[in-house]
Design brief:
The longest helix is centred in the C-terminal third of the chain and has 24 residues. This protein folds into two domains: 135 residues, Histidine kinase-like ATPase, C-terminal domain (Heat Shock Protein 90, 2-Layer Sandwich), CATH 3.30.565; 140 residues, no CATH class. Helix content is 36%, strand content 21%. It is an alpha+beta fold. It is globular and about 65 Å long. The structure holds adenosine-5'-triphosphate and magnesium ion (MG). Adenosine-5'-triphosphate binds next to helix 1, helix 2, helix 4 and helix 7.
Length: 280
């Protein structure tokens, strides 16, 4: 739900924001949530990076593919693809309505319908139905990097006392949570400010109690921080404590995707300099 509401904030340009609702059907073992906005619609935004898209049907079919985004410098194209994967693998489904088309995806396959002759949905409407009685292997389905070791492996005991020689940010205390790009950006700015405040101190991120973050949050905060700082400074000054395996896998994936993107940029610019600023 964070991914889909984040899309409203990042893409829709809806003057009135969006509407979100969620219902849990205990007896049916289902959770259903809907997110709607009256913004630009998927075809309009996706055309920014995919000028060849012909109509609403094609835009919806493209938008749910992994890696498809209107702007690879802003997003990674994980949100809708991940939602599709989670809903259909749980035995549920996802429906997208935007402009003149409706796309439905479930484990049975996908169907796309054009209703241009009858009506139009000006904006974007997403319905996700997730079954709660099945186990969904998230890291496998979302192609997250394999996990090794335990949470203890990444706790740096030298800085156990937060009052000595390190800054400590407890993620659970962060007011914006860890579901959106804007929360990721806020935390990245905070890390940068602390790193500048005392160049001798590392920043310890304490993930105690955090079981899940959104890919967008991981990318906006740590994917971009990694590129801005460079691998050596990042590993020297950013430490993670008590990070759950799934969170670690999501963060690793975000960082690896940013590295791949920078390598591609460096290649295309034939050696001209690339910094984190290029990613904004
Ligand atoms: N509510 C929306 N309004 C307009 N366009 C949208 C909306 N939601 C998604 N899109 C379009 O669909 C594309 C794919 O969305 P998706 O969530 O999969 O990736 P992303 O948001 O670009 O990147 P990420 O989710 O990894 O941060 C977006 O780039 C955007 O063009
Ligand atoms: Mg998204």
């Amino acid at each position: 739900m964070n991914e889909i509401t984040d899309n409203v904030l990042n893409h829709s340009a809806s003057p009135t924001g969006g509407v979100v609702g969620m219902t849990r059907f205990t007896a049916r073992h289902e959770v259903v949530f809907c997110v709607a906005d009256s913004g630009l619609g998927i075809r309009e935004t996706l055309r920014e990076g995919h000028a060849n898209i012909q109509d609403d049907q094609e835009a919806l079919e493209e938008a749910v593919k992994a890696g498809v985004t209107r702007n690879p410098l802003l997003g990674q194209g994980n949100g809708l693809a991940g939602t599709r994967t989670i809903t259909s693998n749980s035995g549920g489904e996802m429906t997208l309505v935007s402009g003149h088309a409706r796309l439905n995806v479930s484990s049975a396959g996908s169907t796309v319908v054009d209703f241009s002759s009858t009506r139009q949905f000006p904006g974007t409407f997403v319905v996700a139905r997730i079954r709660t009685d099945s186990r969904v292997p998230l890291d496998e389905l979302l192609s997250l990097p394999s996990r090794t070791g335990t949470a203890q492996d990444i706790i740096d005991m030298r800085y156990e006392d937060p009052h000595q020689d390190a800054f400590v940010i407890r993620l659970l205390d962060e007011p914006d949570g860890f579901g959106s790009r804007s929360a990721g950006r806020a935390l990245r700015v905070k890390c940068n400010n602390l790193l500048d405040a005392n160049p001798r101190y590392p920043v310890h991120l304490d993930w105690s109690g955090v079981t899940m973050v959104s890919s967008s949050f991981a990318d906006e905060c740590l994917g971009k921080l990694f590129v801005e700082m460079g691998a050596t400074a990042y590993s020297a000054r950013i430490r993670h404590r008590a990070m759950a395996g799934l969170v670690q896998a999501l963060v690793d994936k975000a960082i690896m995707q940013r590295i791949a993107q920078v390598m591609a940029l460096v290649g295309s610019k034939r050696g001209s300099s690339v910094s984190g600023d290029n990613l904004e």
